[in-house]
Amino acid sequence: MILSPWKKKFEHGFPLEQKGHRTVGREGEYPVVDTEGNAFDVSPVFENLKEDFAPSFEGEKNELLVGVECRDFMILREVGIGTIEIVSRPTESLFEIKEIFETAMTSILRSTNQLGAKVLGYGTQPVSPIEDKLMTPKQRYKVLRQVLGPLWNEFAVSASDQTHISVLRKEIIPLTNLFHKATPFLVGLFANSPCRESQDTGFTSSREEFKKKILMSENRHGMANREFSSLDDYLNHLSNMTCIFVNKKGSPTVVNKTFSSIQNTDFQDFLKHEHYVWNSTRPRSVHGTLEFRPICQQPWNRQMCATSFYVGLSENHQELTKLLNSVGNYKSIYLNSDQIIQTPFQIEIVPKHFWEDLYEISYKGLKSRSFGEEVLISPVQKDINSKTTPASRASLWFKEGGTKQLIKQLEIHI
Are 325 and 357 in contact (CB under 8 A)? Predict the structure, then answer.
């Protein structure tokens, strides 16, 4: 085993001991559409928002307004011109995150309502073709498009619901492996992007299905194709992946070769490189968290379900380990991952009552935190009992009334 030169610095971002409850952060992306369901350029939304919040700019002359912020949250432009993102500060209570998102979304809707646009609780743009004109003109996005080709545009239509949960140094690799192993079950349970480009794709999570094709030979997106034996193993794995660009004098410069083969790199270069590896579970040294990436944005009436479910499983990870081991080893779950995602309640490899047990594990984990947060996952119990998912409902709405009905059901109102 080669010792990674970045190990000490990387692991230093994670605490040795837990003080208080695990902290949680959330990054929620939302498609914004016009009255016909096409991607709505959010530029004027941010022009309105900057009247109430501190603005941030990018570009050679700071000409591109890319976000606004306050003490509790940031609202950011994403890869797609029709995507808007809310990023919360870390909190101990999930109810705090819920309140933060409601406050931020209220400000967003005040602007979009004035402009005649709609914000959706959905995992992808529903109508617009996936093409270059949907990409926000940030310099690094142009470089990524140059290197990755048209597949990069998948990020311009995607809307995910990402969760950060604080972990201890000793937990980095065990929990990374565990939640990779859990990935197909969680994606299947929370999938919410079957319909895009005005058609049902046949995939419950189109955002995961099509993104995994990006640098597919490197397994750069989705569930990792193997477990990691140590932090050195994980960091070397990242170092042997293609580095797309490095920042030189403040500007992205194309590299397009393995990170380990680049001369004169530093730890910040490595962190920038690993930021553009999009696997489902990522240890983030800069935050001291595990980042959970594979979940589609959820309908607003269950907006805290996925984040809360992840937190509950994290708090009760020993029981999660036992449950997943009852299904099979890591490789067997990886090989069956597509089927698990597509037909979570019909998959034959899971034992009887698997889904009820999975819910109970998360419920007990949340209950142990003593905040009453277990109520936030009650919609998941209803889905398990009825054997339905956000994706199955979205496909039904589309079948009943096309894109118009889909948007009607998923439009966010507060």
Answer: no
